[in-house]
Amino acid sequence: LLGAACTTTDRVEEACRPFDRRRSGLVMGEGAGLVVLEEESHALKRGAKIYAEVAGYASSLDAYQVTAPPADGAGAVASMVGALVDSNLHPADIDYINAHGTSTKLNDKAETLAIKEVFKQHAYQLVVSSSKSVFGHLLAASGGPEFVFTVMSVYTDEIHPTVNLTQPDPKCDLNYAPGKKVSYKGLASPGKPVRAALSNSFGFGGQNSSIIVKKVDQRL
């Protein structure tokens, strides 16, 4: 863990820079996120406000190294492909990815390669952002708030930015929404709203998980 920690200490609020060429490691944060899951029929019966539908999920274990992912992102590829299969969705159905995005040299490059491998040319049509750029790395708790942000992106058609990304790494060349919120709210174009989104959460020791949520009023 200490080996993956950020070595920049001058301005802590700017130290976490996912996908930036100056990134130097993860920055610890503190927080949590919780959601309530229930069957659609039960939620409708009680008149609950439904934010999104869990379409599918998958996990993998690459067991490559304790703190480093395989350079080609093979474990991340497996979990994202599995989530798409479980969701019965195609890569082109995904509009947003909430990246694991740790601000480490190895993860950000490997995750970018994995996204390209899974989504091919559609990878360049996606918006990708890292919640860790906002609140840091919460370790085992990271997946909770990241899932909440992913759900709210589908619900509101707004995507939070990757903050502190001002000098993009040439090897991380996707649309990471640098420094500015992406909003499709109120737009008439049917292709613009966030119809479905995928959230990646990867852990030490080669644990990888991906979950997909989609709008409740649209069957893709």
From TrEMBL:
PROSITE patterns in UniProt: KS3_2 (PS52004)
Keyword vocabulary terms for this entry: Transferase
SMART domains (alphabetical): PKS_KS
Gene3D superfamilies: 3.40.47.10
Ketosynthase family 3 (KS3) domain location: 1-215
InterPro entries hit by this protein: Beta-ketoacyl_synthase, Ketoacyl_synth_C, Ketoacyl_synth_N, PKS_Beta-ketoAc_synthase_dom, Thiolase-like
Pfam family, one: ketoacyl-synt
CDD domains xrefs: KAS_I_II (cd00834)
Stretches that traverse the bilayer: none
GO molecular function: 3-oxoacyl-[acyl-carrier-protein] synthase activity
GO cellular component, one term: cytosol
GO biological process: fatty acid biosynthetic process
Protein family per UniProt: Belongs to the thiolase-like superfamily. Beta-ketoacyl-ACP synthases family.
Protein's name according to its UniProt entry: 3-oxoacyl-ACP synthase
Organism: Candidatus Magnetobacterium bavaricum
